[in-house]
Specification:
Length: 239
Amino acid sequence: MAQEDDPQADLSAGGTRPVLYSFRRCPYAMRARMAIAASGQRCELREVVLRDKPAELLAASPKGTVPVLVDVDGTVIDQSLDIMLWALRRNDPEGWLQAEGATLDETLALVAECDGEFKRHLDGYKYPERHPDADTAAHRAQGALFLMRLEDRLAAARCLHGDHVALADIAIAPFVRQFAQVDAAWFDQQPWPRLKAWLAARLQAPLFARVMDKHPAWRSAQRGIDFPPYSNTSSPVGS
Ligand SMILES: N[C@@H](CCC(=O)N[C@@H](CS)C(=O)NCC(=O)O)C(=O)O
């Protein structure tokens, strides 16, 4: 029985689980939640309101971004990619760390492009009010260059590193989703059939729905949410 489907795995609830500070719509938090869910690591999820961050989050990680994972021994992991690696190095039933034709360093380099230049252009495109000097169309065009490279990559295989879903697919898809949502009509018109199919597959996977439940904001002294939710799904990735 998979650890995530084992009710016995719930016995440690009550302060002996890692705590995950998360925000439902944050793409960094989405990637962390997907890795945790796929790995079957059980956590206490604390939903954060970004404009009213809990003192406990800021005490753990003063930089105040989510996701943040506080392990049972007090270790704080405050980068989404590191949370993914923490979970997958404990248990990686889908083989996300075993990408075909790519070393982990190559995977991390592709994810760094997403988190660096692409994310900068995504922000300039998505939040023009936060970047008053930004040229929205220029940011969209610059961001599209990264997406075209993904489209080219997907000509060779169904996923970013071969035919099987791996770390890069899970880490990058939430950001492509955000880019696509800024102007869905424009995105639909782009000649990126493979990228659209790849994105649709990621978003239709049961795993994605599993990490997108809505939760009320966590308040101090409350018990957080048991995460991941139990599921009868035999294939959490559904790729
Ligand atoms: N490099 C960090 C970035 C995380 C990040 O920037 N998260 C955003 C939400 S999507 C955040 O918490 N922003 C702080 C804020 O808006 O106050 C990671 O990979 O975890």
